[in-house]
Amino acid sequence: MSIVAVPALAFALWLQFTFDTPLWANLVATVPLTLLACIVLLRPLKGWLVCSQYFHKAEEGKIDKDWRE
Fold first, then answer.
1. Best exposed site among 3, 17, 54, 67 by fewest CB in 10 Å?
2. CB pairs under 8 A, 24+ apart, for 13-16?
């Protein structure tokens, strides 16, 4: 969920430097926003992953023993 981490960090830094909030206020504002954004993105990103695996005909991994020879 690095897609969420960068904007959340930017928001936390903006909040800290603009309003000089204490740490607890920064956590109260930033943590729920980060969790909500992660939960919202979880379903579409998982759907994209499953669709990508289906599209590329992904199979179970196999160990190729001939690559060392």
1. 67
2. none
Cα–Cα distance, 37 to 7 (Å, whole number):
10
- Nearest Cα neighbor of 12 from 25, 40, 2, 3 is 25
pTM of the predicted model, to two decimals? 0.74
Closest to 37 measured CA to CA, from 20, 12, 19, 62? 12
Domain ranges of the chain: 2-55
Per-residue pLDDT of 13-66, as tens digits, reads 999 999 999 999 999 999 999 999 999 999 999 999 999 999 999 998 887 777
